[in-house]
Amino acid sequence: MTSLYRGQITLPVAPLGPDDPLPVPHRLLENPFELGADLPEQIRHGASFGRPRSMHPYLLQNNYPRTREPITLPTVVLDNGHLRATFTPTLGGRLWSLADIASGRELLHANAVLQPANLALRNAWFAGGVEWNIGTKGHAAHTMSPLHAARLTGPGGVPMLRMWEMDRLREVVFQVDAWLPAGSHALHVYVRIQNPGEHEVPMYWWSNAAVPEAPDVRVLVPATTAYATGYDGTIAEVPVPVHNGADRTFSTRSTDAADYFYDTTGTTHPWIAAVDSSGHGLAQVSTARLPGRKLFLWGTGPGGQHWQRWLSPDGPGPYLEIQAGITATQFEHVMMPGRTNWDWVETYGDIAADATRAHDEDWDAATTHVAGRVDALLPDAGLGAVLTEARRSADRAPEEVLHRGSGWAPWNPWCAPVAGSSG
């Protein structure tokens, strides 16, 4: 039986003060980049438009100290006896923790502190969990702001957590519906973006999961090439898994920070997984609207290690990020027509693979095995059926208010939905 209840966590926090009252109408936090001539035209085109001049009308969140104090944060918890998913509605709806109850294994990087740093579009950002990024390249405007949250009845009659907000940059409404089916070993998440306006807007979405990093953790994805950047400004296509003489699917074999955007073309249900030497670790799989998959690593050099210590000074240890997006890379936007909905389903769970097979030097053999374990996480009817069922709940009105977001977001955007969803 699945339960949904309010909870709280207390941890050392560098508190976020009030927004900076001075607007910044000109620049974004952005590293310069140059697209290689060999990249597909679709990527080059998607990267050629959509970048806003600034985050206006948002103000900067730059009023936080370097000292931390114990602060209690409200949470909303889903628990079905197999998994316990803990969300923080005051922090962008972040999925803070996803724990396997029987083993006590934490599948995410559940940070022991909350230390902001200037890494988001509005400055303040913190490491850990799964965050929901919309609007444009970078950690989203709401990543350290509250979302609306409510309880309702979801697919199969289980309780569902709904979180939503308005993205003022693109003037769209997004919602994140999360539930744990009875007996399931995977968290289900339904995401919908609604553009209620008449005009098309550039759109961007990436779900960003932080997971434990160690020398025995390998990131697997159904791809043989990736678009890589080493933060030197260039982006180029590279082979997977071995690049420049090392298997880069083991993040600790890279000295410098890097992004690997994997080419998952032709994959019906794109997935990515981080598997340790016990065979366990987080797997994420989605319907086709979310084709992008990415590995981010800080690297073992002094700069990356400094960032790891600063963002997570009290553990639980280093982390890497596995991500999923609506484009092949994070340099792109896609145009979303007016009066349109886009939606998809994501699931998160323990891959429970055979470690020897997942770490096989034969990349095809390793990914084939892990793909089978991903399929084992899915319901018998498949993700398409989950998406269909989630859509039946998508316009259902909230039953109980759990938290209030900004005054800009409509409290009940389901009373007059826009045109039919497209996953």
Number of strands: 28
Shape: globular
Oligomer: single chain
Helix content class? 10-25%
Major sheet attributes: 10 strands, mixed
> What distance separates the N and C termini?
29 Å
Radius of gyration: 20 Å
What value does the average pLDDT take? 94
Q: How much strand content do the residues show? A: 35-45%
Poorly predicted regions: 415-419
Structural class by sheet pairing and helices: mainly beta
Counting DSSP H or I runs of 4 or more residues, the number of helices is: 5
Notes on the protein architecture:
By secondary structure, this protein is mainly beta. Helices cover 11% and strands 38% of the residues. The strands form 6 sheets. Strands 9, 10, 11, 12, 15, 21, 22, 26, 27 and 28 form a 10-stranded mixed β-sheet that branches. An 8-stranded mixed β-sheet has the order 2-17-16-20-23-24-14-8, with no helix packed on it. A hairpin with a 2-residue loop joins strand 18 and strand 19 (246-247). The radius of gyration is 20 Å and the shape is globular. The model is unreliable at 415-419 (pLDDT under 50).
Quick structural overview:
Helices cover about 10% and strands about 40% of the residues.
List the defining traits of the structure above.
423 residues, mainly beta, ten-stranded mixed β-sheet, eight-stranded mixed β-sheet, 38% strand, globular
